[in-house]
């Protein structure tokens, strides 16, 4: 119903940070440079999710363009790995209650 396999894994904040660091490492290998600390990017992602925003809902600007890019890659990584963070659990639950399934 929400696009997950039965064996999904819920990750904790330390896992989030490790994933963001891995994505940042891949980005810097592609000659991109960043000034945001990994923890600041994790905080950005969590804040967006707390506000009910996915990466595609964020309008990139000069200040958040790189964070939004990492958020997009983070979402893709979690989906491919069948993992969820706590913010995603809330977004999925909210999505279920606002879907036509419950209407």
Summarize this, please?
By secondary structure, this protein is mainly α.
Give a description of the structure:
The protein has 103 residues and is mainly alpha-helical. The chain has a single domain (9-102), classed as Arc Repressor Mutant, subunit A. It is 58% helix and 4% strand. It has 4 helices and 2 strands; from the N terminus they run βαααβα. The chain has a two-stranded parallel ribbon. Helix 1 packs across helix 2 (38-50), helix 1 crosses helix 3 and helix 2 crosses helix 3.
Task: Sketch the topology as an H/E string, one letter per element.
Answer: EHHHEH
What is the C-level CATH assignment? Mainly Alpha
- Give me the count of strands: 2
Task: Estimate percent helicity.
Answer: 55-70%
Strand order of the largest sheet: 1-2
CATH topology: Arc Repressor Mutant, subunit A
């Amino acid at each position: 119903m929400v696009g997950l396999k039965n064996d999904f894994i819920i990750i904790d904040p330390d896992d989030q940070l490790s994933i963001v660091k891995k994505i940042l490492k891949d980005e810097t290998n592609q000659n991109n440079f960043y000034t945001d600390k990994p923890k600041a990017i994790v905080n950005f992602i969590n804040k967006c999710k707390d506000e009910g925003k996915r990466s595609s809902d964020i309008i990139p600007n000069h200040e958040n363009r790189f964070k939004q890019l990492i958020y997009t890659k983070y979402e893709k990584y979690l989906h491919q790995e069948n993992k969820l963070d706590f913010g995603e659990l809330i977004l999925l639950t909210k999505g279920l209650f606002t879907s036509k399934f419950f209407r």
